[in-house]
Each structure stands twice: as structure tokens, then as C-alpha cells.
Amino acid sequence: MDERTDGERGLRLATRGLYTLILRLMLPLALLRLYWRSIKAPAYRRRIGERLALGGRAPRAGIWIHAVSVGEVQAAGLLIRQLLERFRDEGILVTTTTPTGAARLGELFGDGVAHRYMPYDLPGIVGRFLDQVRPRLLIVMETEIWPNLLAACERRGIPVVLANARLSARSARGYARVPEFTRETLRRFTLIAAQSQADADRLIELGALGERVRVTGSIKFDLRQPASQRDCAEAIRRLWGQRPVWVAASTHEGEEALLLQAHRRLLERLPQALLVLVPRHPERFDRVAALVGRQGFGLVRRSHQDACNEETSVFLGDTMGELPAFLAAGDVAFIGGSLVAVGGHNLLEAAAWGVPILVGPHTFNFAAITEMMLEAGGAARVADAEALAERLGVWLTDAALRAEVGAQGQAVVERNRGALERLLAVIDEALVNKAVSCQPPAASSLHADP
Fold it and tell me: Which residues belong to any copy of the 3-deoxy-D-manno-octulosonic-acid transferase N-terminal domain (predicted)?
């Protein structure tokens, strides 16, 4: 038994050592990628030192929240507001991986919440960052699992909560390729608040301790848009005019061509229809605009503030922070990343406004929420561009049907509110009962990071 335990411990150490070595070798490439992305999005080359925990010292903060990008920041918004009320004196730090996530945090909180870029998951960098921040608690949003960071927090007695956790079957298969390493890493979370029972089951199957996993639901159901958002949506709708409008939200490479194909088919039936096209990544705005132009559609770009007239058939949403208002102003929403194998995006912003939703075949990133919406009749799935055009033609010519579908989706949102309160209870549990996470470290973690 002891020999097997020693062997397993040695394998875990060797695996994490290999992971760290690979990460070290990839670091120059990661930095080069930032510079490459900065050609089209200059924000990627700014504050690079923060990713190495160098340069400007990170501020002290009792609560550290990591939210990768825009979607995670948006989801964490209500949580951050609650934590600001509870822990204002301790300070809250939010890290993101992308500049768009940083920008969205600034839009939501201004200077009220400190921001830094997430440090790379190398022992020296992570240690330096923790020395600067010295958090009492780390909350990681959704799917971010960083082995060296978790090991460092465990050694320092810092509880870590994986909040709003989701894990698709596809991602679970990837983690299962390194079972011992994954098991050790997941067991370093103090508590895990899973979005659904399916997410919880996958995490436990991979090695998370069942007694540390709670099913709290998705806090995205608790999102409440301010009244000012409705006013903004009404102003945008006046800009578009009285015509059928469908919004394609968070689209990806290769998907826009399919959406334009569907829109061309739709125009044969509804010549006045308007497609509001909102790419997921800002660095792609110009490329998507060029694609629309090459295909001969009348194009207006939101950033140019040009008039949207009867000759406009595509409105490009190339600004940040306006997607919720676009969704509220539209008649039908298509949620991107689902006609191509990206895995889809969050349906709930559109559903909360009572807007009927269409998705493609690839929705594994939001499988549970998507199935709930489909079963309730608040959304429909289409297989391809032709089916999308067909369904759009039906919905955009039947206001009563749109209202019925939209109401079904809105009811799903209302029935599932309350996840935020349950997540806050998990956070309180992690803080109050530190014994869950501050047990004597496993033998493998008594050693220095490789």
C-alpha cells in the first residue's frame, strides 16, 4: 500500500513537473501571441508585466475573483456587487485574461474594483502574485483550473471556490486523459459550486471530492438588466426602424458566412429584414465588415454612427457593452458559436428580455441551460443555414408566435433565479469553515513546486 501511495505521489509530481516545464517552454510563444493579437487589438500589448507579476505591484485584497473574459465578468457582476457590500474594507481584486474582460469590468464598476491581468500559471509568477495580493479567499469563475495556482493556495491556507462551475462532456474527456493529475488538482478546491447536477457528476467522476461539491445553479439566471438598458434598446430600435430584425450574437470565425447565407435566403421572403451581426471578438470586426461588403450587403457599422436606412441589410455591432441592448431591441436572437463547433454561448440575456432564441447544433458549453430552454419552448435548434432561414421566416412573420416563445424562455429564467444566494452561502462556508481546505497538505504538496 505504501509503495503504491509513493508511486502515485511520484507520478503526480512528475506530471505536474512536466506540465510546468511545458508551460515554461510555451511562455515565449504566449508573449509573442499577445503581441500578434495586439496588431489588431492594441490593448493586448499593454500591461504585459502584470501577466508575469512584474511591474506595478498588485494591490492587497481580501477577496480575489478570477473571471476570464466578458461573459464571466458579466456573470460575476451581481456577485461582485454583493461582495463589495460585505468585504469593502478588505478590498476586492478581479483578474481577467482578456482586455475585453477588463474593459467590461471597468464599464460595470469603474474604479470601484481593482483589476489585474491573470498571472501565468508558473510557480514563481504565481507565488510573486500571491505575495503581493495576500488574499483571504480566491473565487474562480466557471471553468478555470490552474494546477500550480491551486497548489500554491493550498500551501498558504488560502481557500479556493470554483464558482458557477460548468464542465462539458467534451472538456471532461480531455481532463480524463491525465486522471491522477486531474484528481489531485480538483481536490485542491475548497468547495465547488456547480451549475447543474450533470456538471457536478462530471467533476466528481474526475476526482473532485463529493462532499465539497454543491449544486447551486447558474448565477446567470439572476442577471437583472437596469431600466436604463430598456431605454437604450428603445433608442436603438428607433435607429433600425419598423422592420423585421434578427440579432446574431457572439459569432465566430466561419460562422458569419453561414449567417449571411441564411440572411440572403431570408431577404427573398422578407426584403426589409435586418441582420444585426455582433462578432464575439473585437479584433475580428474589420474582417467581418469586409466579408459583409464582399458579399454585396448594404452595411452600417455601429461604431461609425451612420444612418440605418432601407438600403441597409446588415448592421454590424462593432462596439463593446451594447450586446444586451441589441438583444432587447431585436425580434429574434441567434446565439453564436453554435453553427460552428465552438460550443455556443449564454442564452439567458436574450431570454430575460422575452426574445425568442435560435441555436445551432453545437451547444455543449451551455448544454444544461440550452436543454432547459429547448424543452420549455423558449428556444429552437436549427441544423444549418437553410434551416435557420426557414425558422426566421416563420418567426419574423408571426408576432403572436414570437411573443409565446419569448414568454416561455422568460419563464425559465424566472423559475431558476436564486443561484446567487446559494453561491454566497458556499462562499460563506469556505470562509467560516476553513478546516475544509486547510487540512494538512497532502504529501505531494509538502515539496516545493517543480
Answer: 47-222
